[in-house]
# Entry
Amino acid sequence: MEDKGMEHPRLILHNFLTEEECKELEFIHRSCSTVGYRPNVFSTTLSHLIATNSPHLIIPFLPIRDRLKEKVEEIFGCEYELVTEFTGLISWSRGASIGWHSDDNRPYLKQRDFTAVCYLNSYQKDFKGGLFHFQDGEPKTIAPLARDAVMYTADSRNTHSVDEVTEGERLTLTLWFSRDSSHDEDAKLIPLIAESLLHKSNNVPCSFLPLPASDNMYWFAPNQASHQELGFDIRLGRLHSLGFDVYYSQGMSFISDLSELLMEPMQLARGHQLLDHEFANALHALQVVQFYFWKGCKSQTFTNEVQSGKVVKLSQSQCEKISQVKSVFLKDTKLVETVFRRVEQQSFDSASFSAAITAWEDYSRKLHKEILMSFPQWRAHQAIYSVQFDVS
Ligand SMILES: O=C(O)CCC(=O)C(=O)O
Ligand SMILES: [Fe+2]
# Structure
């Protein structure tokens, strides 16, 4: 597929990522994304993961990022010349599209030399619409397929567009590379990680519990809506699409500032049942729920001991508290269901779910250890780079 004349330098690599890598990144995005930079777009940036006390979740990105950079350098003949300018997960829901453009088409984007887009899910299977087109040269149209990666120069030789997504959520891992070492994203990320690891704030009792960002970063507003009442909180929206409600035992009347509610400890409900476990906040609950579905909902897939997951029937007043929260944070459940496809009658097993809570902790603890251990080396790398840069 390589354009030999390099009139339009680009390449498609099939099966560049493993299925497992795609699923893990999907898990991270579905549990950590914020509303994106354009309508109907969601994103998960590395700096956001660090800022929400989840720096350990950047671990799965690192080997992929290195492999992609090496591949781009090899294909385009610029070994050891590139730095990663940006790494992030981006998803497009119904209504998102982008017209003809090149990725360096703004003065502040001129440092971008190469683009790599990895498809984490598939056209027709996971979403409709969202075909990718190059304006000139071959191939002309690309139908996103999970595990494939597309690489191209960021200049006008590779002007491209993406059709509007009409259903589902189109998910990519997107990276930009630069020859200008002053645009290395690590230079920004490393101090943030250091701060996160070294100065744990007092209100984070556990080293890997997520700490939500400000509420507006999770507020989905339908296209150009002037009225706030038509949006929804994407954390609760994603929980809703998987069949979960959130329950605050204290009710809403105790909270003076409603926007703080989703930072408070809460429980999950499903149908007429209240699950026994207390989560630190809505983001924590979302991470565990997404982990449960990522791992396949079956207790056999969780290696730890399965305790019985306690559930109790919701009382009338508890149901009312749930509806109150919904009326504030999920005003339009129809809209939620078009943005995040409702998963119909997903089987749910409370014993497996409580096993998943422990498995999520083990997973997080393992990644947390890895980031703690790799961090000094990583910083040393950075030091070497800057020395080389100073000398030249
Ligand atoms: O997701 C894609 O296929 C490309 C997206 C794009 O063109 C961009 O983010 O600049
Ligand atoms: Fe683009």
Q: What stands out?
A: Residues 101, 103, 160 surround fe (ii) ion (ligand 2) (CB under 6 Å). Residues 244 and 270 are 5 Å apart (CA to CA). Confidence is low (pLDDT under 50) at residues 388-392.
